[in-house]
Amino acid sequence: MPSSSLPQSVTEKILKSHAAALNGRPDREVAIRIDQTLTQDATGTMTYQQLEALTANRVKTLLSVSYIDHNTIQIGPENADDHRYLQTVAARYGVIFSRAGNGICHQVHLERFSKPGQTLLGSDSHTCTCGSVGMIAIGAGGLDVAAAMAGNPFCLTSPKVVKLHLKGRLNPWVAAKDVILSILNIFGTQGNAGYILEYGGEGLQSLTIPERATIANMGAECGVITSVFPSDERTREFLSAQGRKNDWMPIEADDGAEYEKVVEIDLNEIVPSIACPHSPGNIRKVDEVAGMKVQQVCIGSCTNSSYKDLVIAAKILKDGKIHPDVSLVIAPGSRQVLRMITSTSALDALLNSGARIQECVCGFCVGNSLSPMTSGISLRTNNRNFLGRSGTKSAEVYLCSPETAAASAISGELTDPRTLDIPYPHVEMPVHFVPDEDLFLKPPMQIEDVQVYRGPHMGRLPLNTPLPRVIEGQIAIKLGDNITTDHIIPAGKRMKHRSNIAKYAEYVFEVLDESFSSRAAAIRDNGKHNVIVAGFSYGQGSSREHAALCPMYLGVRVVLAKSFERIHITNLINFGILPLSFIDDADYQWIEYNDELEIHDIHEALRNNDRVIVFNKTKGRSFEACSLMSEREKRVIIVGGKLPYLKQMSQTKQDR
Ligand code: F3S
């Protein structure tokens, strides 16, 4: 890390050591060099098609890994075809390929590749998990990740850093999941887009890396840029146990480092907590809602699938049987975790209890399997419980710790684990983890000879046209607050169409309005632009750029909302969709579905004061809206998106 005379936070140290030059005026952005990237298969097919469109050269990062962990059900040939594409394109570009069954990208990356002091950009919103070892690890849209692999810096809004000062230590039966649920209770799920959460304080000493990973992982649900922990003695122990002690370096905040604000959290005061349907921000204490019957309990996902999580569950379930009305599913986060619980008595204890063991994948978390019964109650240790994400729209999904989940699986009802009649099971962190690397495929030396496979279902990469000066639009849908990317374009059983935008676009807003796609296509074919109107926090949740790409394909040119979430607004800009915010939120009230709108002089407005006049032809009224984009983002959107922008930039360089 570079030295500086001014005291620095962990965040500043890593960002400053990766500072890159910005093209044009820096205004509100910083640009950083990206050391590592990760992709997963649900976002990867588009990411690598975009990489192919950008360059024919080997990736320029220090390390890039392509994981298969989302679409592993493989009903029909689409997923298997996509996986073969991903395997061959990884080999062609010098990317390590992690085969299906190797584990969930964030868990595996943490185990095998995380490196304190480095930067990581991933096409998955929970890439922030690796912030647990002192990385700046950021989730982004696939196009941003493709651009980083091609050697471009990543631009982010100059962050405001909040220090979370942890003191005390967790009481028995209280878990890292309860810590992050308590933090979500403080910060909520919206309005945190420009922040980085940096952890510090003496309370850190008692938190292992898997526990820190759970906390960093669900920072994504607060909507922050990322979360970061110092790299300390616990980090060194974890990396040594992974056989990677040379990857460790210490990184701590300097005394006197300045933060936007400091929030003190006393770990002693945290109690078992739960996120109620249908938002991870809908937090209650477990003892306030205990007693309701549950039909399904799922332990796993990138939030809580570590060795420690599963051994705790095994120790609680040991000598007991799950309730006959409960289906208990255990999904280890990686083959390493599976091997570790197999080599101890933990797997046996889980099997004896009646648990089902799922392969090491996202599985239930992404809703492509294990959907709950109609109107069923499902307790899960993952990070999102949005309406319909589980695959059952009528189901109620609650998010909790492995301790609460295991206790409830035995009793058949939501149970505060503190009421169990057993001593709290202590789990020692292993001194050596099994270094399972069998399912990684390293790229060949001669990458130029690799033939990239493309299945018959793979569609073409759609591109937008330059931003017109005048938009003549029609309101295709009017939405409320907290619209997530799961609402915009569902995962689950629809996910197998991720590499075919024309097909996948048929499901835009399916969970809210099944006729949206055909209506929007009709408006587009009629020569009009589609406009989406929404309330606060539009685009929460996953990083899937399909939530911008598919609406773009349907002719959506403007999203007019009270506010946007970080990754999604960037994805809109990257694909040439103009994000506009209401200046006066009261104007939202008198816009209705089907209203016709006109916006004139858009380019001039972007050049001048960022304000546009929106004329509602149907109502005969005008109002003002603004676009809060950086100078670079304005250049991107004017040419129709990031892909044409990067191509233009590279052409300009060649012409010089
Ligand atoms: Fe996978 Fe769920 Fe995490 S889909 S990457 S386990 S949020």
Q: Any overview of this molecule?
A:
The chain has about 650 residues and is of the alpha/beta class. It has 22 helices and 26 strands. The strands form six sheets. Strands 20-21-22-23-26-25-24 form a seven-stranded mixed beta barrel. A six-stranded mixed β-sheet has the order 6-5-2-3-4-19. Strands 16-15-14-17-18 form a five-stranded parallel β-sheet, covered by helices on one side. It is globular and about 70 Å long. The protein starts with 9 loop residues before the first helix and ends with a helix. FE3-S4 cluster (F3S) binds near residues 124, 362, 365, 366 and 383. FE3-S4 cluster binds next to helix 4.
Amount of helix: 25-40%
What is the number of E strands?
26
* Rg on CA atoms, Å: 24 Å
Major β-sheet annotation:
7 strands, mixed, barrel
Side-by-side strand order of the widest sheet: 20-21-22-23-26-25-24
The number of helical elements comes to 22
Strands, helices and their partners?
Layout: H1 10-17, E1 29-32, E2 36-40, H2 41-54, E3 63-67, H3 78-93, E4 96-98, H4 105-112, E5 119-122, E6 136-139, H5 142-149, E7 154-157, E8 160-167, H6 176-187, E9 195-200, H7 209-217, H8 219-222, E10 226-228, H9 233-241, E11 261-266, E12 273-275, E13 283-285, H10 286-289, E14 296-299, H11 307-317, E15 327-330, H12 335-343, H13 346-353, E16 356-357, E17 377-380, E18 396-399, H14 402-411, E19 440-441, E20 471-478, H15 485-488, H16 501-504, H17 516-525, E21 529-534, H18 546-553, E22 556-561, H19 566-574, E23 578-582, E24 596-599, H20 602-607, E25 611-616, E26 621-626, H21 631-638, H22 642-655
Parallel strand pairs: 2-3, 2-5, 3-4, 5-6, 8-9, 8-11, 9-10, 14-15, 14-17, 15-16, 17-18, 20-21, 21-22, 22-23
Antiparallel strand pairs: 1-7, 4-19, 12-13, 20-24, 23-26, 24-25, 25-26
